[in-house]
Structures are given as C-alpha cells and as structure tokens.
C-alpha cells in the first residue's frame, strides 16, 4: 500500500494544497493592506511647470514612413509624488508612468501616450521630486499633426507582485497642456 | 486477467491525458485566448518578469490600457512576445492600435514588428493581457525544451517507474 510512488503522490498533493492556501492568503492580505493605505486615491502628487516642444523627424524610428517628415512631441515637467503606500511585502516593483490623453479627429476616438516612466524597486526610492525632468520618449501621433490639441497628463502606476494579480491605478493629480506648434524655419 | 488489467491501465492514462487537454481547451474558451497560460522566455521585461515565470492571460477586454502588459504574436514570426503597452489609439468603432515596449529594452518594439508595420492591431495581433503572475514555476518547461539531459532523465525515470509499478 505505501510504496514510494504513493508516498510521493501524497507529499506532492500536500505541498500543492498548502502552497495554494498560503498564496491565496498572501494575495488577499496584501490587497487589503493597499486598500487600507488608500492606494487607489493617492493625492500627494503634483505635475507642474509643463513645457512642450514639437519638431519634425524623418526616421522610421520616430514614426515616419518613406522619410516623410513626422511631428514628434517632447515635454519637460516638474513632478512631486509619494508612492510609499504602494509598497508592502507582496510588492516586487512599482512601474510609474506619465501618460497624456487627448482626443482624436472623430467623435469617440481617443489617444493615450506615455512620455515618461520609471521602475521603482524599493520603498526607499518611492518618494520622487523631479524638477525640469525631460520626457523619456519622443512621441508621435497616428495622425499627421498634433494640431495644437489639449492633452491631460496623469501619473499612473502598476504594482508587480511577487505572486498574484497585476494591480493598476492612477494618482488623483492631473494637469493639462497644449501641444506646441512646430517651430517655423526662418525664411532667409 | 492480465490483459484486462493492462487495458484498464491504458484507459486510465487516456482519461488523464484527455481531461488535461479538456481543461486547457476550456480555459482557452473562458479567457478567449489561444494560449491562456504562458511561460516567460526572455529577459526583456526584467525585473518584472524573469525567465520561467508563469503569466495568466485574459483576452476578453474590448480595449487595452496604456501600462497593461500584453502578449502578442506577429504573423509569420512564431514566438509570442510579452511587452508593455506604451501608446494606444482607438476610434469609436473599437479598432485599437498599440505600440509596445519591453521594460528592460532601451527602445520601443518597432524593430520587432513586421516590415513597415508601425502599430499592433489589438484584435488581430494580441493573444491576451497579463492579469496574474506566478514566479519561477514554469522553469520546468524551459528545462524540458532546452536541456537534453533533463528531458531524457525525466523520460527515463517515468519509463522505469512504469516498469516497476504494480497496482
């Protein structure tokens, strides 16, 4: 009755069910802790002093096809935030990203782009105070031009856990800017 | 009597295999994804995902958000890629274009797409969005596919145990 394969099966079953119970507990407890810390309504963020700049690029890597000049946008911003409430014992990393959302040409169409992001791996690095930070990415649109539309900037976050579901949220801060006009080449 | 026992064992094995297959396929139907559980094969999303981590996918979202991690497959290239959405553009009809980037890569994925392809089509190209994460467990499959000694060792062990086991 109790041969090696039986014993092995019994041990494996026991290990599997214990692992499932422990991880369920970890997931529920860590999410409860985030709720207690008001993770989904962080109001310690401010995005300010936004400057924008638009230029023309001709490379495929900047959204151009057939070397047709393509509008690329960059911004500069000040950012203050405290993301410490997002860290607990089931947080492997926090991915923060600064997004800009702006309408498209037709009703119901919309665009959202990332200007800047950062991976934060420890609670000690979770307080950010950046001034005159330059955008990490050069952004182009699906359309030809940004047409001086207005965009809303938001700081959003994604918690990567050690185990369990990926969690997403946004800080309450938002800030608007208008895409800059292209600098006209000076006529000689 | 002996042959009856062997047939029974064979039936048992077939039952195990078919129920595993059914479970996998019903998971695929529930999540609407052709491969609802994937193992990370590259380090392009480190430190979030390492090689061998298991990801659970869901493919019933109408729209994908910026910041979501999606798994996509370009027609003609067989390897699925797990990367984060950097930009999204959608219209009222629900057509959505995505640009992706790996957290650990310096540049976006334009170089990984097909020639002259500038965006992913959310409906056509993505297999699913990553919803859940289990560390390390999938490393067994990497060992099985990449390590010859492990594969044949495991096969040999299974063969030996079936030879010596008596129910």
Automatic annotation (TrEMBL), chain A:
The chain crosses the membrane at residues 15-36. Its main location: endoplasmic reticulum. The keyword Signal does not apply. It comes from the Eukaryota. InterPro entries: SPC3. It is found in: Endoplasmic reticulum membrane. Keywords: Endoplasmic reticulum, Membrane, Signal-anchor, Transmembrane, Transmembrane helix. GO terms for cellular component: signal peptidase complex. Signal peptide: none annotated. It is a single-pass type II membrane protein. One of its GO terms (biological process) is protein targeting to ER. It holds the Pfam family SPC22. Essential component of the signal peptidase complex (SPC) which catalyzes the cleavage of N-terminal signal sequences from nascent proteins as they are translocated into the lumen of the endoplasmic reticulum. Essential for the SPC catalytic activity, possibly by stabilizing and positioning the active center of the complex close to the lumenal surface. Essential for viability. Belongs to the SPCS3 family. This is Signal peptidase subunit 3. It comes from Pichia sorbitophila (strain ATCC MYA-4447 / BCRC 22081 / CBS 7064 / NBRC 10061 / NRRL Y-12695). The lineage of its organism: Eukaryota, Fungi, Dikarya, Ascomycota, Saccharomycotina. The gene is Piso0_005634.
UniProtKB/TrEMBL annotation, chain B:
One of its GO terms (biological process) is signal peptide processing. PROSITE patterns: SPASE_I_1 (PS00501), SPASE_I_3 (PS00761). Its EC number is 3.4.21.89. One of its GO terms (molecular function) is serine-type endopeptidase activity. It is a single-pass type II membrane protein. Residues 22-93 form the Peptidase S24/S26A/S26B/S26C domain. Keywords: Endoplasmic reticulum, Hydrolase, Membrane, Protease, Signal-anchor, Transmembrane, Transmembrane helix. Pfam families: Peptidase_S24 (PF00717). GO terms for cellular component: signal peptidase complex. It comes from Pichia sorbitophila (strain ATCC MYA-4447 / BCRC 22081 / CBS 7064 / NBRC 10061 / NRRL Y-12695). It catalyses: Cleavage of hydrophobic, N-terminal signal or leader sequences from secreted and periplasmic proteins. Belongs to the peptidase S26B family. It comes from the Eukaryota. Component of the signal peptidase complex (SPC) composed of a catalytic subunit SEC11 and three accessory subunits SPC1, SPC2 and SPC3. The complex induces a local thinning of the ER membrane which is used to measure the length of the signal peptide (SP) h-region of protein substrates. This ensures the selectivity of the complex towards h-regions shorter than 18-20 amino acids. SPC associates with the translocon complex. The keyword Membrane applies. Catalytic component of the signal peptidase complex (SPC) which catalyzes the cleavage of N-terminal signal sequences from nascent proteins as they are translocated into the lumen of the endoplasmic reticulum. Specifically cleaves N-terminal signal peptides that contain a hydrophobic alpha-helix (h-region) shorter than 18-20 amino acids. Signal peptide: none annotated. This is Signal peptidase complex catalytic subunit SEC11. It is found in: Endoplasmic reticulum membrane.
């Amino acid at each position: 009755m109790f041969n090696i394969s039986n014993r092995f099966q019994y041990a494996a079953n026991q290990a599997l069910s214990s692992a499932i119970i422990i991880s369920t507990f970890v997931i529920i407890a860590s999410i409860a802790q985030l709720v207690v810390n008001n993770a989904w309504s962080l109001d310690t963020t401010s995005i300010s002093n936004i400057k924008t700049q638009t230029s023309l690029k001709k490379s495929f890597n900047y959204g151009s096809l057939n070397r047709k000049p393509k509008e690329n946008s960059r911004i500069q911003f000040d950012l203050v935030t405290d993301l410490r409430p997002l860290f607990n014992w089931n947080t492997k990393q926090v991915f923060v990203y600064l997004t800009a959302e702006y309408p498209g040409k037709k009703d119901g169409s919309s665009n959202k782009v990332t200007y800047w992001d950062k991976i934060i791996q420890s609670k000690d690095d979770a307080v950010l105070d950046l001034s005159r930070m330059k955008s990490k990415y050069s952004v182009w649109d699906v359309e030809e031009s940004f047409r001086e539309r207005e965009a809303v900037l938001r700081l959003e976050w994604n918690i990567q856990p050690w185990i369990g579901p990926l969690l997403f949220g946004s800080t309450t801060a938002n800030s608007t800017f208008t895409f800059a006009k292209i600098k006209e080449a000076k006529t000689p | 009597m002996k042959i009856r026992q062997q047939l029974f064992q064979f039936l048992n094995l077939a039952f195990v295999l078919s129920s595993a297959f059914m479970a996998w396929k019903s998971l695929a139907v529930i999540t609407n994804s052709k491969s609802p559980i994937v193992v990370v094969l590259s380090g392009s999303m480190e430190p979030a995902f390492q090689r061998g981590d298991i990801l659970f996918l869901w493919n019933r979202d109408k729209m994908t958000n910026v910041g979501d991690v999606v798994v996509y497959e370009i027609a003609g290239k067989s390897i699925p890629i797990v990367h984060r959405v950097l930009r999204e553009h959608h219209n009222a009809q629900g057509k959505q274009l995505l640009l992706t980037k790996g957290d650990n890569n310096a540049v976006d994925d334009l170089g990984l797409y097909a020639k002259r392809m500038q965006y992913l089509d959310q409906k056509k190209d993505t297999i699913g969005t990553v919803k859940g994460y289990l560390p390390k467990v999938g490393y067994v499959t990497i060992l099985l596919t990449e390590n010859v000694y492990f594969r044949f060792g495991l096969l040999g062990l299974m063969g030996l145990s079936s030879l010596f086991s008596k129910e």
